[in-house]
Specification:
Blueprint (H helix, E strand, L loop, with lengths): L12 H11 L5 H27 L5 H21 L4 H26 L3 H21 L7 H26 L5 H4 L3 H31 L5 H29 L1
Helix pairs in contact: 2-4, 2-9, 3-4, 4-9, 5-8, 5-9, 6-8, 8-9
Length: 246
């Protein structure tokens, strides 16, 4: 219940109840799992296509990578502010990010053979481990836990934004790209925080279903979980590349 006790009017319980009663359908965990599975299939299909284009030496790879990244970012922003559109936009987001991930993964794998399979395995392994920890109550999404994880996530986001701006002026942040001890420790911390965000996603899904959130929230929750998985995969990929460079 605490997840929806927010100053944000979109997340207030009364809003969810009103929307749920409007069409008589509410969010369920099974429905969310089904939609998440669908989004994963779409993402992987797009990733395989983009990966295949790289292997063929196609000149379309970079447009697919940049187009997918930019398109995915725009779609994510729209979904965040217009949650009720998530049923239409979340699949498009999955396709766009799949094109981006497929191209990026192919580039990493060209430099470090086998790194993609390792990253995929570690990502899903981490997902399963965090789900078990959440379901068994070893890690609980308390208000303090949420505050710490969200603050740490915001801090990383600001750090990456600063790094992006500095890179425009040809200044690199060594922690992000360095394969030294501090660079690897930084990546391990980011991977850990990304993994802990999965707990917030699991809690959002469970609380949404318990409170009778509107049906479209299944798509929104699935989108949120997919965003976390993509972030986790990219950070694991970056960490493995650093370890391979040592």
């Amino acid at each position: 219940m605490a997840l929806f006790q927010s100053n944000n009017p979109v997340l207030k319980e009364s809003i969810f109840n009103k929307a749920a009663h409007a069409d008589g359908t509410t969010m369920t965990i099974r429905g969310t799992v089904n939609k998440m599975s669908f989004l994963l299939i779409m993402l992987m299909a797009a990733a395989v296509f983009s990966y295949g284009q790289f292997l063929k030496g196609s000149s379309n790879v970079l447009p697919l990578v940049f187009g997918g990244a930019i398109g995915g970012f725009i779609l994510a922003l729209v979904i965040i502010f217009k949650k009720e559109w998530s049923g239409y936009l979340a699949p498009a987001y999955a396709l766009a990010e799949g094109l981006f991930l497929g191209g990026i993964s192919a580039m990493f794998n060209a430099n470090y053979q086998g790194i993609v399979l390792q990253a995929v395995g570690l990502t899903f392994g981490t997902f399963i481990a965090m789900l078990v920890l959440y379901r068994t109550g070893v890690i609980r999404a308390t208000e303090r836990f949420k505050s710490i994880v969200m603050t740490a996530t915001l801090g990383i986001g600001i750090f990456y934004l600063i790094a992006f701006v500095l890179r425009l002026f040809h200044i690199d942040m060594p922690l992000i790209h360095s394969s030294g001890t501090f660079g690897i420790v930084f990546s391990l911390i980011v991977v850990a925080i990304a993994a802990l965000n999965l707990i917030l996603d699991f809690d959002m899904i469970e609380q949404g279903a318990a409170m009778g959130a509107p049906k479209y929230f299944e798509w929104y929750a699935s989108f949120g979980l997919l965003v976390t998985l993509i972030w986790l995969y990219l950070e694991i990929l970056r960490l493995l590349s650093k370890l391979n460079r040592r």
